[in-house]
Amino acid sequence: MPDRAPQPVDRQLPTDEARELISLVRDIARNEIAPKAAEEEDAGRFPREVFGLLSRSGLLGLPYDAEYGGGDQPYEVYLQVLEELAAARLAVGLGLSVHTLASYALATYGTKEQRAEHLPAVLGGDRLGAYALSEPTSGSDAASLRTKAVRDGDDWVLTGTKAWITHGGIADFYTVMARTGPDGARGITAFLVPGDAEGLTAAPPEKKMGLKGSPTAQIHLDGVRIPDERRIGEEGQGFAIALSALDSGRLGIAACAIGLAQAALDEAVAYAAGRQQFGRPISDFQGLRFMLADMATQIEAGRALYLAAARLRDAGRPFAREAAMAKLFCTDTAMRVTTDAVQVLGGYGYTADFPVERYMREAKVLQIVEGTNQIQRMVIARHVAGPESR
Predict the structure, then answer these.
(1) Which residue, among 89, 97, 3, has the nearest Cα to 47 in the 3D structure?
(2) CA–CA separation, 183 vs 138, rounded Å?
(3) Catalytic residue positions?
(4) What is the mean pLDDT of each run of 10 residues along the chain (390 residues)?
(5) Which of 180, 197, 334, 382 could disulfide-pair with 257, CB 3.0 to 4.6 Å?
């Protein structure tokens, strides 16, 4: 049996423009991202030049309005772009998802004046965003955050520490949630903070199991002064903005997870077709063939789930339950599929000579970020069974 090269995913796209977009993304992924992924991840190098290319190619603002430099693409298309990028290198797909998440508050809740002033640079000006909600003592319980914003005339003064910030220390802007009122969800407000603001500093990046090329760091705000014009939404509306952003962001994580799983499956299939044992390719053995069949089925199910949620979003219908389901199922799938890919490759899968060990390490974080999968189960259960009794 000859070696089997990976086949591109057969995508059902709504327009010719979307098909051309996916073709462009595949060219970038194949020529600019994938060849350097292993080396740069091993070195812990963030591919900032790739994000410059994505910006110049019009890919940093795909789901946002063309009036402000966005791509006017439905989420159904944007998520498939993410999947293609994540398959080439998760740090790039996840980075674009985080940038989109960071842009959400401004694009969705900003005034017309705020959007006109800031969005063109955010969506097409080679800027990179970060989303600053979590803190050292408030992760899943995000409404207990302690970072404060105190009004001082026409300005706000922000003080506190944010934790687990993707692009922390390298972002050009941060969407920061800070407390402007009493304890609880209703006392939180959103702010657009420049990355070079005086008093904003970053701790050294965390030393992580995977995604070493994507910096994650604490952000310290020591009396950061910003004008009221950079407050997004009304005072006290920040937590609602944060949750709304996360519904969409979870779909981004789901798409990235399926991209990573697809890359692992492609590697496993290619290896199994070329590896000979007992005088025949190991892809001939039923036990392994069934494993590959299960991997492929889980990936297709995850892809269908995130696309169904995206189409609800595009139609203006509620999709929070479906977003949680997609995030849960797709990231659990990525963990299973990447683990099985290591098993298919045997001892070789446990070495850095093949990418599946990196895929397995990277998959784990997707079950944690933007709401752990335990939190997703809580969200889904509330939709299915109603709120918990108190």
Answers:
(1) 89
(2) 13
(3) 370
(4) 68 94 97 96 96 95 95 97 98 98 97 96 93 93 94 97 97 98 95 98 97 97 98 97 96 98 97 91 91 98 98 97 98 98 97 97 97 95 90
(5) 334
